[in-house]
Amino acid sequence: MSRAVVFAYHNVGVRCLKALIGRGVEVALVVTHQDNPNENIWFASVSQVARDYGIPVITPDDPNAPEVVEQVQACQADFLFSFYYRHMLKAPLLETAQRGAYNMHGSLLPKYRGRVPINWAVIHGEAETGATLHQMNVKPDNGPIVDQMAVPILPDDSADEVFAKVTVAAEMVLWRSLPGLIAGDAPHVQQDLSLGDYFGGRKPEDGRIDARTSAERLHDFARALTRPFPGAFADTAAGRLLLWKTLRAGRAAPTERAELRCADGRLWLHCADGGRLAVLEAELAGQPLTADNFAARVAADALAL
């Protein structure tokens, strides 16, 4: 029986941990994060899954601390796996795995290396993304690829909807890769890093809308940042506007900058390129904004972003 140490968090962590268990891999230790009380925890708990299966769990602030490396080394694991764990694992940790260390990444590597790859893919209007299992080294997301699976990004998919697809793809990729990893004959294909770029993490402030961008880009931006994420926003004369759900809805006259208007019982966002978005869900100054209350809340014919 193969033996593994697993670093994991989030829904991908939960499903991949269960895939390992389902394939008969002995998980000697799970390393995960303490949930941050200031974060919207909308995803499942790796800690709870480990407890359900009687697997020891630790939640160190620094996984690369000498005492953690020593504890992992003592497990004498064949494999080390990282499934949406948020910290980089340095060489001393990676070297504890006798048969290799592997990461599950939420993109079709080498595209969208780095942080929050699903959100970035939606922001850029990609038609597909996926999950990639690759060997780890000291540089992020650039080791040889074992396997990957694509999933579609539909034109109106939110990042959350895409994340659900990627979670299933990650489980399937790991499930079908494990027999080859255990047997020692899994493919390891070097990445051509020139075919993709590295992207950093995102903060709530990065959700500020560019009011001079096109309707298509603004729609992609809004759906990439909608719930459970902090949202795409603009500070207006009537207060902070949050766009939670939009749909592309034809053309109108170009504007100097995006303007929110009400017509025919609906909210419309007229964009700088002449594109128009139907606004299905929005907030203004912390309260829902609808076609029915637009006039009272905005006190004007249009609200400039």
Can you walk through the features of this model?
- Residues 203-296 form the Formyl transferase C-terminal domain.
- The protein has helices spanning 10-22, 46-52, 66-74, 91-94, 117-123, 159-183, 215-225, 294-298; strands spanning 3-8, 26-31, 57-58, 79-83, 101-105, 113-114, 128-135, 145-152, 198-199, 232-236, 239-251, 259-263, 266-270, 275-284, 287-289, 302-304.
- Strands 3-2-1-4-5-7-8 form a seven-stranded mixed sheet. Strands 10, 11, 12, 13, 14, 15 and 16 form a seven-stranded antiparallel sheet that branches. Strands 6-9 form a two-stranded parallel ribbon.
- It is α/β, with parallel strands linked by helices and 305 residues long.
- It contains eight helices and 16 strands.
**Multimerization state:** single chain
Q: Mean pLDDT score, rounded?
A: 97
The helix content, as a percent range, equals 25-40%
Number of strands: 16
| Main sheet properties | 7 strands, mixed
The number of helical elements comes to 8
* Rg, Cα atoms, Å: 22 Å
Shape: elongated
Percent range for β-strand residues: 25-35%
* SS-derived structural category: alpha/beta
Strand order of the largest sheet: 3-2-1-4-5-7-8
Uncertain residue segments: none
What is the element string, with H for helices and E for strands? EHEHEHEHEEHEEHEHEEEEEEHE
User: CA-to-CA gap between the ends?
Assistant: 59 Å
